[in-house]
UniProtKB/TrEMBL annotation:
This is ubiquitinyl hydrolase 1. It catalyses: Thiol-dependent hydrolysis of ester, thioester, amide, peptide and isopeptide bonds formed by the C-terminal Gly of ubiquitin (a 76-residue protein attached to proteins as an intracellular targeting signal). InterPro entries: Papain-like_cys_pep_sf (IPR038765), Peptidase_C19 (IPR050164), Peptidase_C19_UCH (IPR001394), USP (IPR028889), USP_CS (IPR018200). Belongs to the peptidase C19 family. Its EC number is 3.4.19.12. One of its GO terms (cellular component) is cytosol. It comes from Achlya hypogyna.
Length: 355
């Protein structure tokens, strides 16, 4: 038996099928970064108890902080018995009826709900700001250590220009236990699952506007070279730059001037891309001067230019890594037309490399 001076932690009373509930609480209580966050947004009273007001904005957050504080390590003599999270369960039931009562639930969903409730309450405590305030200052961000930001990029395999797709704010990264849903190639280490999550996925048939523009420039340059080689005062047939266009018979000097001006215009547009494949080729993104030279060269609508479709690689990047990186491992696979949950052990290390 432990003596009164031994540092230990209190147990947690099971309220009936609440093992998922208790597991998440114990994990959060041992997370120093999250406890620091709670102390900032919902400080406890000096005696360690909750604030007296029951109608405060941080009702759930305060009860959560109080419950987790009771699970903090302390001398054995100061522990009167197991922690009974009845009030926390009651507060949760007020917000989400699905978690009311003693029914078995998913621990990851419970974790998500805890964080969302805390985040919603935190936002309510922030002062209301006018439109001018929002313009001058960005909205205050929560200090919750679990929130991170991931981004999805498409990269052209031909020119390697990138096309940003979207960014997502996340609480945990959802990794797979297998490379496919058929249960084959089960991962044995978290590194394998992480590499699978961040690996590039090949997508064929995506238009690369950068390659489209470069291909158009190559055609214009070839025509400029051909026009420069002949008599400038002669009339020549100049082929169209767009599909289905007609050949025009014009003075060679004029045609060369038009094509060279168009080439300079396209070069200037290409210089603004900054390694990002997001050129506007639908006709609305061209300024007046650019539109003029397109029209002079017979391109009334840039959408009629020959498009370049190629293979892209889609991959996920961590744009902002949270202080506490949490993973949710999907163990579900389909075996013989039935969903099965694998119980394979996934090894992991305290430090995870993205390489």
């Amino acid at each position: 038996m432990a003596d009164g001076s031994t540092t230990t932690v209190a147990g947690l009373r099971n309220l009936g099928n609440t093992c998922y509930f208790n597991a998440v609480l114990q994990a959060l209580a041992s997370c120093a970064r999250f406890m620091d966050h709670l102390r900032k947004v919902s400080p406890l009273a000096p005696d360690g108890e909750e604030p007296e007001a029951d109608d405060r904005c941080l009702a759930f957050t305060s009860v959560l902080h109080h419950t987790l504080n009771e699970l903090a390590p302390r001398p054995h003599a100061m522990i009167g018995g197991p922690v009974e999270p009845y009030e926390l369960n009651e507060q949760l039931g007020k917000s989400i009826k699905g978690f009311r009562g003693g029914r078995q639930q998913d621990a990851e969903e419970w974790f998500q709900l805890i964080m969302e409730l805390c985040e919603d309450e935190y936002k309510k405590t922030q002062p209301k700001r006018s439109l001018f305030d929002l313009i001058e200052l960005p909205p205050a961000e929560s200090t919750n250590p679990f929130y991170g930001l991931s981004g999805t990029l498409l990269e052209c395999t031909r020119c390697h220009m990138r096309k940003p797709m979207w960014t997502d704010r996340f609480l945990d990264l959802k990794l797979s236990l297998c490379a496919s849903m058929d249960g084959r190639h089960v991962f044995s280490h978290l590194r394998e699952s992480w590499r699978h999550y961040t690996s590039k996925e090949r997508i064929d048939g995506v238009e690369c506007t950068n390659c489209t523009l470069r291909a158009l420039m190559e055609v214009v340059k070839e025509q400029c070279d051909a026009l420069a080689a002949g008599d400038p005062m002669a009339f020549v047939d100049v082929p169209s730059l767009w599909e289905g266009g007609e050949t025009r018979n014009v003075l060679r000097a004029d045609a060369l001037e038009w094509r060279q001006a168009l080439l300079d215009t396209l070069n200037a547009r290409l210089a603004t891309t900054n390694s990002v494949c997001d050129l506007d080729m639908d006709g609305t993104g061209w300024n007046k001067d650019e539109s003029h030279w397109l029209a002079v060269n017979g391109i009334e609508d840039p959408r009629t230019c020959r498009r370049t479709y190629t293979e892209f690689a889609r991959h996920v990047r961590l744009m902002r890594c949270p202080d506490v990186l949490s993973f949710h491992i999907n163990r579900n696979v389909f075996l013989q037309d039935a969903m099965v949950k694998l119980d394979s052990y996934l090894r992991f290390e305290a430090a995870l490399s993205a390489h």
